Amino acid sequence: MTEKEHTYAASGVDIRQEEDTIKSLTKKMTYKREGIGAPLTEIGHYAGLIDFGEYAIAMTTDGVGSKVLIANEMGKWNTVGIDCIAMNVNDLLAIGAEPVAFVDYLALEKHKPGFAAEVGEGLAKGAEISRMSIVGGETATLPDIIKGFDLAGTCIGFVKKGEVLTGEKIQEGDVIIGLKSTGVHSNGYSLVRKIIKDSPYDYHDYCPYDPKKTIGDDLLAPTAIYMEVLDVIRKYEVHGLAHITGSGLLKLHRITKLGFDISDPIEPPAIFKFLQEQGKVSDLEMYKTFNMGMGFVIIVPPEVAPYVVGMTGGKVVGKMISSGIFVKGLAIE
């Protein structure tokens, strides 16, 4: 690697170290409630499930991450609320649950006019898209801890216990359908910011690939919310679902140890090529960090694939194999 090549780890986020931290954090969490509220899944899937009679209650928690630093730079905060909702809702959808309620957590260095209204605008829009209510939250002023702001939230959904999708039904030969992302979404921004910092560009410059918008505006495009997934699972046989977020395609192993042969991937939006060229990032590093144009995956039997593509506007990108994750022959893991 030359000095000019950028990686996620070198930008400050080491996925392997993060996994070790999670294992250390959770290894002592052994107590399990019984009866109503008993856990139905182990820690590590997209959402946690608890027993609620006929139903399972699904819970997720997530935040916007360092994308908020670009929002601060641009002075534009009306989309980060959508990101906060999307990161949670998409994780619920990945287990087959329907979102019903959300609470947010906004931590601030200091209050300033207009800021909270813009954040609230995005939260309201995200909740509307997700067909759920925001039922509360918390705002904390923490000048000794927070520099700028941090936005996170927790989402609750439900699913009948017999309709939970954990990926255990996936089998070799199943078809992989990819749903397009709207851009970088809300992951990998430590690497994004490092690339831009070391490039001749800044966030206010117009995109060399699209002179109608700035680089900052493109990077702030809100995360897609894939509510169409609920329609699919109610109508067709689905074997697995995956939300492609931090650590890119490595996320696919959350749902199965079988392999993924992505032979015809979705064409990534131009922002990814721009970042790759400016940061001299390898193809492998790109697919291990970003969604690369595919924000969600639906895995189905071959016979229903054409109908799911027609319903979602997605694309057949490959098929399930015995092991590994491959993109056009490139081994991701």
Automatic annotation (TrEMBL):
Pathway: Purine metabolism; IMP biosynthesis via de novo pathway; 5-amino-1-(5-phospho-D-ribosyl)imidazole from N(2)-formyl-N(1)-(5-phospho-D-ribosyl)glycinamide: step 2/2. Its main location: cytoplasm. One of its GO terms (cellular component) is cytosol. GO terms for molecular function: ATP binding; phosphoribosylamine-glycine ligase activity; phosphoribosylformylglycinamidine cyclo-ligase activity. It catalyses: 2-formamido-N(1)-(5-O-phospho-beta-D-ribosyl)acetamidine + ATP = 5-amino-1-(5-phospho-beta-D-ribosyl)imidazole + ADP + phosphate + H(+). CDD domains: PurM. Its EC number is 6.3.3.1. Keywords: ATP-binding, Cytoplasm, Ligase, Nucleotide-binding, Purine biosynthesis. It comes from the Archaea. It is found in: Cytoplasm. GO terms for biological process: 'de novo' IMP biosynthetic process; adenine biosynthetic process. Residues 171-304 form the PurM-like C-terminal domain. Belongs to the AIR synthase family. This is Phosphoribosylformylglycinamidine cyclo-ligase. It comes from Methanolapillus ohkumae. The lineage of its organism: Archaea, Methanobacteriati, Methanobacteriota, Stenosarchaea group, Methanomicrobia. The gene is purM.
